[in-house]
């Protein structure tokens, strides 16, 4: 159930990116992802974004990390 909640969580309309990521982090803490946690957080963040333009930009990044994604969010905001 926890993994379903994590994997189905998308950014809500009007939800700031920082709140969206914080929610994903909370959800990931209950999923027991182990070493994959950061990778899955990054993937879910990108997949669940409401901003398609930003998603396309992030998907072009060959070695995307959550930190790089957050930096990109800051440039857009």
Q: How are the secondary structure elements laid out?
A:
Elements: H1 2-7, H2 17-29, H3 37-47, H4 52-59, H5 66-76
Helix pairs in contact: 2-3
In short:
With 77 residues, the protein is an all-alpha fold.
Short key terms for the protein model shown above:
mainly alpha; 77 residues; 5 helices; 0% strand
Tell me roughly what share of residues is in helical segments: 55-70%
Number of strands: 0
Tell me the structural class: mainly alpha
Note the overall shape: globular
- Sheet of most strands: none
Low-confidence stretches: none
- Please tally the helical runs, counting DSSP H or I stretches of 4 or more residues: 5
N/C terminus separation? 33 Å
Strand content is under 5%
Rounded to an integer in angstroms, the radius of gyration calculated over CA atoms is 12 Å
Please tell me the overall pLDDT. 90
Element order, helices and strands?
A: HHHHH
